[in-house]
């Protein structure tokens, strides 16, 4: 675990890339410290915790991304956090990309990274 995740933006979406352990710590900080205990955050944490199973399923189904379960109530209230997840392996290291909902602001991610003790590398 390097303790770093990379924050980037593309077409209005913010996303983070990093080792699964670091991204998982960031997501847990979003849920526990910042009060975003939503269905999509919990499902994202479950997917990251069971990386191997979901990675194999993605490859078997030829999918690039997984969309976590979302509650309609969370979407309407504007508190949904995660749009989709990509799992990958680079040189034997498990990595993940989390693409956030367009309404998630960078400040939330900065606070979560700080709470989790993770360095946020902004591109």
- Average pLDDT reading: 92
Structural class: alpha+beta
Shape: globular
Rg, please? 13 Å
Supply the number of helical segments.
5
Rounded to the nearest angstrom, the distance between the terminal CA atoms is 20 Å
**Low-pLDDT sequence parts:** none
Helix content: 40-55%
Biggest sheet strand line-up: 3-4-2-1-5
Helices and strands, in N-to-C order? EEHHHHEEHE
Strand fraction equals 25-35%
Task: Tell me the number of strands.
Answer: 5
Q: What summary fits the major beta sheet?
A: 5 strands, mixed
Topology (elements, then pairings):
Layout: E1 4-10, E2 13-19, H1 20-32, H2 39-49, H3 51-60, H4 72-77, E3 82-90, E4 93-100, H5 106-116, E5 119-122
Parallel strand pairs: 1-5
Antiparallel strand pairs: 1-2, 2-4, 3-4
Helix pairs in contact: 1-2, 1-5
Summed up:
The protein is 41% helix and 28% strand. The chain is an alpha+beta fold.
Question: What does the model show?
Answer:
The protein has 123 residues and is an alpha+beta fold. The chain is 41% helix and 28% strand. The protein has helices at residues 20-32, 39-49, 51-60, 72-77, 106-116, and strands spanning 4-10, 13-19, 82-90, 93-100, 119-122. A five-stranded mixed beta sheet has the order 3-4-2-1-5. Helix 1 (20-32) packs antiparallel against helix 2 (39-49). The longest helix is centred in the first third of the chain and has 13 residues, at 20-32.
